[in-house]
Every structure is written in C-alpha cells, then in structure tokens.
Specification:
The protein has 260 residues and is of the alpha/beta class. The protein has one domain (3-122, 191-256): Alpha/Beta hydrolase fold, catalytic domain (Rossmann fold, 3-Layer(aba) Sandwich), CATH 3.40.50. The protein is built from nine helices and ten strands. Helix 2 packs across helix 3 (96-107) and helix 4 runs antiparallel to helix 6. The model has no long low-confidence stretch (mean pLDDT 96).
Length: 260
C-alpha cells in the first residue's frame, strides 16, 4: 500500500498511467477510489494521482482537532506532490476536494496548469451562510460521535457521508471524519474566481441542487472556464455518469496541450 509521511502523518495515495500529472482529491467521506474510473480512462496518456485526505480511510486520523485545518490539507497535497516529483500538474477534486484544489491554486499558482472543479463551491462571502454551514457540520460530527466510538472504523454510509455509489469501499475512523467536519470544512473562505488565471473545467450534476448555483458562479466569473452539466446525475456525477465525465475531462486535458 503506497503511503508517504507528510506533516507528521501517513497519507495513502494511488497513481495510474504515465504522462502529464493530474492530481485529484475526493470529497467528505470518500476516498481515492472515487477517481478510479477517471484514472482508468486517462492512464494511457496521463499520470493520474489520487489520495485519501487526512482523516479518511487508509490515511492517518489524528486525535487532536488542531490537526484538521484547510491549510494543513493544502500542505498535505503540496508535500505529496513533492514526494512524487510533481512540480506542475492539473489539480482537481470533488466537493471538498475541489475546494482544496482552489485553495492549493491560491497558495501555489505556479504549480497549477489547470483546474477541474467537480461538484464544488467557492466558499462563503456571507458570515451567516458560513456559520450555518459550519453549525450543520458540527451537528453531524456530534451525532457521529454519539452513535459510534471515536476510535472505530465505520462505513461512510453509516456515517451519512460520502458518495452512495462507492458502496462500502471506504471505512473511516469516526474521529477522522468528525475532525474534518469540525476543522477542515469549518468557515470555508471565499475564493474569488475572477483571480483564477488557468483553464478550468467545472462539472456539476443536473440534480445536484446544492452546487448548480456554484457552477453558475464559476461559469460567469472564471476568465478561462467552461461548464458541463451532467444529465441524470447528482452530486457524485463522476461515479453516476462516468462515461460522460471521463470523456469531458479527456477532451479538456487534450486541449491543454500539456506535456510531461
């Protein structure tokens, strides 16, 4: 099982294929396997890297809440890229993973050739909206810790997180998922799309009511963006309609003209 020690914890990662690197991050309650269909579709020409975010599945889940911040997750991604010798890549992700890619771009724009934002929001400008989001996640974390032992591994479905299409693939430490909800996902700072100066592919399911407006925001504000609405899909469109998402990502990447 490929792992690397970064920022004091063990992180699991997977890579398939060879060529220009594409680094993908999953959402809350998911794992690297979220991107397996995409990796298989791209591996003939691209080096696809996916990983388990801290607190998830095969990566370490620290006890202390201070170990769960968005900045630390961005640094995990940077350290993983360094370990793999990736100086520049296409970065993307689903939901929380897409937001992580946005924050990575803010921190290291010279390392990002393009972005793939799948079911992703830009964070909150409004304090009340940010507080409501944070309170809702804290309530979910409290329920998880009341129902299960913090040190137990529990299926994502039982924790009420993750993409149902993954089934019982991912089992997370309760303390890890709760830490991500209380720390990493708390008060997500707004990312101004007008400041993103790389090609960006925005993907959203037509039934993903929570993120259609976000996709519309990105479409209207990105200087170099394109949007795909996936018919018949919800939040995890990459799993529900992989043939559509994979083809769109392949077309987007091929159009960049990037080389290793």
């Amino acid at each position: 099982m490929p792992t690397v020690r970064v920022n004091g914890i063990e992180i699991y990662y997977d890579e398939q294929g060879a060529g220009f690197p594409v680094v993908m991050t999953h959402g809350l309650g998911d794992c690297a396997e979220l991107w397996s269909p995409l990796a298989e579709a791209l591996a003939d020409r691209y080096r696809v890297v996916s990983w388990d975010m801290r607190g998830h599945y095969r990566s370490e889940a620290p006890e202390e809440l201070e170990a769960y911040t968005q900045d630390i997750v961005v640094e995990d991604l940077r350290a993983l890229s360094d370990h793999l010798g990736i100086e520049r890549a296409v970065y993307g992700g689903h939901s929380l993973g897409g937001y992580t890619a946005l924050r990575f771009y803010e921190a290291y724009p010279e390392r990002v050739a393009a972005l793939i934002l799948h079911g992703t929001g830009p964070g909150y400008r409004n304090h009340d909206g940010s507080q409501a989001w944070t309170d809702r996640l804290a309530k979910l974390a409290a329920w998880q810790e009341e129902r299960f032992d913090r040190g137990a591994r529990v299926d994502a479905k039982e924790l009420r997180v993750g993409a149902p299409a993954l089934g019982t693939v991912a089992q997370h430490f309760v303390r890890g998922v709760a830490g991500v909800e209380r720390g990493v996902m708390a008060h997500p700072r707004f990312v101004d799309a007008t400041a993103i100066d790389v090609p960006t592919l925005v993907i959203v399911g037509e039934n993903d009511k929570g993120y259609l407006a976000s996709a519309g925001y990105f479409e209207s504000k990105l200087p170099n963006g394109r949007k795909l609405v996936v018919e018949g899909a919800g939040h995890p469109a990459a799993l529900e309609r992989p043939e559509v998402v994979n083809a769109a990502v392949r077309e987007f990447l091929d159009g960049l003209g990037v080389t290793p």
